[in-house]
Amino acid sequence: MRQSTLISGANDTGTLDALFVNAPLRDYARCPRTNDYTLPVLGMAYIATYAQRCGFNVGVLDAEAHGLGIEETAKIVNGAVPRWVGMNLLAPTYEMSARIAAKLTPTSPSWSGGIMPRPCLTASSSTPA
């Protein structure tokens, strides 16, 4: 399946096993960026690299670096049809990650990582984490 050009590292000739999404700090469709710099997501890149070296087809979508909004990020993820979706869950991004996750198709299970997954999932879910 042909992947979005904004997804880095994926082999677009086969099924995408995992898509790692760096959530934006805010919904840039509603509140445009005022700068053109961002920090790299090294932890996510390390995990993606390890998975790729183990034979999995993985990609990274850096929604923050590309200045994507919530809808556009979810549309790209859903269009890629990954087997799994991984998102960062840090204090500045947990609300955006939850909003993106709410728009994903149920065919792609998702997981979150970072320093805050349990408190944030508990606070944003009606089911205990």
Describe this structure in words.
It is a single chain. The chain is of the alpha/beta class. The protein has a single domain (7-124), classed as Rossmann fold (3-Layer(aba) Sandwich). Helix content is 34%, strand content 16%. The protein has five helices and five strands; from the N terminus they run E-E-H-E-H-H-E-H-E-H. The protein has helices spanning 42-53, 63-66, 70-80, 94-102, 117-124, and strands at 7-8, 18-22, 58-62, 84-88, 110-113. A five-stranded mixed beta sheet has the order 1-3-2-4-5, with helices on both faces. Helix 3 (70-80) packs across helix 4. The longest helix has 12 residues, at 42-53. It starts with 6 loop residues before the first strand and ends in a 5-residue tail after the last helix. Mean pLDDT is 82; it is low at 116-129. It comes from Streptomyces aurantiacus. This is B12-binding domain-containing protein.
Strand order of the largest sheet: 1-3-2-4-5
* Proper CATH architecture: 3-Layer(aba) Sandwich
Mean pLDDT: 82
- Rg (C-alpha, Å): 14 Å
The string of secondary-structure elements, in order, is: EEHEHHEHEH
Strand content: 15-25%
Distance between the termini: 34 Å
Summing up helix and strand content along with how strands pair, one would put the structural category as: alpha/beta
Short description:
The protein has 129 residues and is α/β, with parallel strands linked by helices. It contains 5 helices and 5 strands, in the order ββαβααβαβα.
